[in-house]
Amino acid sequence: MSKRDELIAKYAADLKDKCGVTPDMDLLTKVTIGCGPSIYNADSSTVAGSDQKELDTVKNNFLIKKLGLKDSADLDKAIDAVMEQYGRSNKSKYRAVVYYLLAKHFKKEAIYK
């Protein structure tokens, strides 16, 4: 099993166990690939849910640039909802899982087809 496959399995387990979501493995794989090499770096592979600068990066680089959404309060609300769903006390919020949940939230799965 490749390192990426191991990470995807770990992300799927997080979605099931921590978020209560049965993952669409095809979409999760594509979101993970879309994260590029950041998934292999301990710092960039996770999202610090309490760091506003980090949350702004998720909003600007993923929601606005990747998903093509317009900047609005809805984006911040969605990020907040995902952080809540993932569990605020959970220190390791994987970037691929956060992006997966946000893509699902905004029904933007087609971007990864």
Automatic annotation (TrEMBL):
InterPro entries, A to Z: DUF2853 (IPR021274), Jann4075-like_sf (IPR023154)
Gene3D superfamilies in the cross-refs: Jann4075-like
Record Pfam families: DUF2853
SUPFAM superfamilies: Jann4075-like (SSF158587)
Protein name: DUF2853 domain-containing protein
